[in-house]
Design a protein that fits this description.
alpha+beta; Jelly Rolls; eleven-stranded antiparallel sheet; 11 strands
Amino acid sequence: MELGRLRAIDPRHREAAATGSLRDSLEMHPANLLVLSGFFVSEVAERLAGFLGEEARYRIERRLFSSPDPVDEARWATANDHDRLSSVRRVAGAGSSPALGRGAIEYLRVRSFLGSGGFRSFLEIVSGRALAGTWGVGACRLDAGDFVRPHRYDPGTCQLRLEVFLSPRWQAGLGGDLCVIDDHERVTCIPALFNRAVVLDTSLGNTYLVAPRRDGGVAVPRLSLEASFGPGAAGSSGDDAAGETAHPRWI
């Protein structure tokens, strides 16, 4: 893979991937995760944040533990609260303007990039795993009252996940940490600080959740980009990326 083609990623991380240090860090972490601060080059991160925070339109996505797919409002309203897995917001469009702004164009470009074979090759170098095409690439917004409760991924359908936090005003005191519970019941929580990426090896049965938000006195949305990859055959290639609504199965 020519790492120079991954220009959206900060050069530090491209170089670290090439030397193998990112793979070493992932394998040595007790929860098999990797945290990369300043993941995108600054201008890319700023345009993405502008689009997600100011231009994008969102739809509510609600999930139950008992359903592999999102559910409608009626089913959500009648579900037992213990069955409610998550309530978040997903990008549904680029606002009311007929012309795409720079932020929307950047979002579409980066979304395509995260679903590309080149980026998958980058993650294969980082993780040491063969990966299939993405299950889904998209953006998630959590406002006050939204939540993601503890869950695991089916290792047969999801082997690696990437989340990049893109809220410029987010502070650690606002909560909303991405938390991982490993098989020894150790908890690792990563604050959702701006332009920080987390690579998660989901094949080992760890539990994931988003910590509750705290009242920070201002309405700051928690914004992120996400991509999920299934297991692939050694030497696999291709750019078969799924759409915004494609997700691995929750268990």
